[in-house]
Design goal:
Elements (H helix, E strand, L loop, with lengths): L21 H12 L4 E5 L6 H12 L4 E6 L11 H18 L5 H12 L5 H14 L4 E6 L8 H15 L9 E6 L6 H5 L25 H15 L5 H12 L3 H15 L8 H4 L2 H13 L3 H12 L1 H13 L10 H9 L2 E4 L2 E4 L2 H16 L3 H13 E2 L2 E2 L1 H16 L4 H20 L3 E5 L8 E8 L2 E9 L3 H17 L4 E7 L8 E7 L2 E7 L1
Parallel strand pairs: 1-4, 2-3, 3-4, 11-12, 12-14
Antiparallel strand pairs: 5-6, 7-8, 9-10, 10-11, 13-14
């Protein structure tokens, strides 16, 4: 059977190129299932939760009876009250038994009798489940996917409370050996989804849950092994390790983003101008093209991210401060907004501080912020009107961009409040730059070099990269250190020329653009 890269629904190794999950499944079984743990796999949208559960069901079948449920099978009306939910849950559970190939006639008989009698309470349901678990020849593992479909319903909270109660007395009363719930929301945050502004935001029916600390992102090695399978089938002559590392640089291993890049390369980019062969396609340039295409399209993942930022104003402010100002915010899950961003998958901990989860998310967020700024922005309009002079023979003249920006900035912002400009200066330049490269190029902020004094912007334009350092002036010594840092960064990117934009608030400053030589590197330095 021919295989392809998949970005919708569960992945199957028979139909899709995918990262091998054997090590992950073994660890889940040995560290959680075998110990009888109840736990929650809460990760961001399209993080491989459903694929992992599907593979785990197959992996466990020799030692456990696995009942796999998907709460998307239940409609809104099934949560209207307790009797309705109990009946609907019983029917879905019965279907899960019927999909099992082993013989569970006794357990099925108990469950069918319960449904026929139209049991009307959670108490009656759990009494039935307890009898069923007692009669089973093997321990039963219950898996429920897409719990977000149920988590804003009180009857489901009550269901969790019953489950907790039976778990605490499991030595006396038979119940499921292990329970796995999968979704975006952590169980303790269920009421955040129901009432974001409520003062009573946390509940305790799942404080028995084990801490699921298994990394579900893809490492460069895992990506490379997936690409090796693709290479066997297609013989592209790609640099497998190099391509895997480059994909990881953009995605930090976020599963659907990895697959999205690969899918674009395999199905959309191959055969287009500049990518006539597979060997030309599976390259750094091909990956840049794939990222550009993905960011221009709407997707459920990016839509969800935008929705959450619109819903939670404090979270929006944190993300904006990190991207524009390089603000260092201590990472603490006790802070609600940070907890939410981490739970949704677009914030992470890095060296004790809050960081954007991956480069593609950051590029998407930056595009979103830019779009909002552009609506009523004179700066964006100016960049758009200046654009034609910066593009010559399809090449971007970055030095001329800086010269024009210095003139424009000095005229418009020269007399503005210093503190305001120090905070907004980098944003102003990014807004100015956006329409110049829009539709043809991309830019992103290099997370490793960003702080409140310095930001490196990487501009990709038709296969050429420009390294632009944006910084606040803090004296000649600091400036010289920044120049040396930039030359080191140019070495990393194998570039001979770099660009520096300094926001200098000294009264005796000398604005303008100059070219300086440092070793074998040339730096175009602009001062405003």
């Amino acid at each position: 059977m021919k295989r392809r890269f998949n970005i919708t629904g569960s992945c199957s190794p028979k139909r899709h190129y995918m990262v091998q999950l054997d090590d992950r499944l073994k660890k889940i079984k040995e560290d959680f299932i075998d110990y009888g743990s109840y736990f929650v796999i809460n990760r961001g949208r399209q993080y491989g939760k459903t694929t992992t559960l599907s593979a785990l069901e197959e992996y466990l079948k020799d030692d456990y009876i696995v009942l796999s449920l998907d709460f998307q099978q239940l409609g809104t009306g099934d949560f209207v009250d307790e009797p309705t939910f109990v009946h609907a849950f019983g029917e879905v559970l019965l279907q899960a038994f019927q999909f099992n190939k082993l013989d569970y006639d006794i357990a099925l008989k108990v469950l069918e009798e319960f449904i026929e009698k139209k049991g009307t309470s959670l108490k009656a349901l759990f009494a039935c489940l307890s009898r069923m678990c007692e009669m089973s020849s093997l321990p039963i593992v219950l898996m429920i996917d897409e719990i977000d479909s149920a988590s804003n319903n009180q009857v489901f909270i009550d269901f969790l409370a019953q489950l907790r109660g039976y778990y605490l007395k499991r030595d006396k009363t038979p119940i499921f050996h292990s329970v796995i719930l999968a979704g975006v929301y952590d169980i303790k945050n269920l009421k955040l989804k129901l009432r974001p502004d409520s003062q009573h935001q946390y509940n305790s029916p799942w404080n028995i849950a084990a801490d699921f600390d298994i990394d579900m992102s893809f490492s460069p090695l895992q990506i490379a092994k997936m690409l090796e399978e693709y290479e066997v089938d297609h013989q592209t002559a790609m640099d497998v390790q190099g391509v895997a590392e480059e994909i990881y640089q953009y995605t930090s291993g976020y599963p659907v983003l990895v697959s999205s890049i690969c899918k674009q390369l395999d199905e959309k980019i191959i055969g287009t101008e500049g990518f006539e062969t597979m060997q030309k396609t599976w390259t750094k340039q091909g990956i840049e093209k794939a990222v550009s295409i993905i960011l221009k399209k709407s997707s459920p993942l990016f839509e969800s991210m935008a929705k959450q930022l619109d819903t939670y104003a404090d979270l929006y402010k944190i993300v904006e401060d990190i991207i524009y100002c390089g603000k260092k915010i201590p990472f603490s899950l006790e802070e609600k907004s940070i907890n939410l961003g981490n739970m949704f998958g677009f914030l992470k901990e890095e060296n004790g501080h809050v960081a954007i989860a991956n480069r593609m998310f950051e590029m998407c967020l930056l595009n979103m912020f830019m779009a909002k700024e552009a609506i009523n922005s004179d700066v964006y309009a100016q960049g758009g009107s200046d654009r034609i002079g910066f593009i010559k023979d399809n090449m971007l003249d970055m030095e001329l961009v800086l010269k024009k920006f210095v003139t424009y900035f000095t005229e418009i912002y020269g007399q503005k409040d210093e503190k305001l400009i120090e905070k907004q200066g980098r944003k102003i330049f990014l807004i100015y730059l956006k329409p110049i490269i829009n539709g043809t190029g991309n830019y992103y902020i290099e997370a490793q070099t960003r702080d409140e004094r310095r930001t490196d912007v990487i501009v990709d334009y038709l296969g050429e990269q420009f390294i632009v350092e944006l910084k606040i002036w803090h004296g000649s010594e600091y400036n010289e250190r920044g120049e040396r840092q930039l030359t080191d960064y140019l070495d990393y990117y194998h570039k001979d020329k770099g660009y520096m934009l300094s926001f200098n608030f000294n009264k005796n400053k000398e604005t303008g653009v100059r070219e300086i030589q440092i070793g074998d590197k040339v730096i175009v330095e602009a001062v405003v």
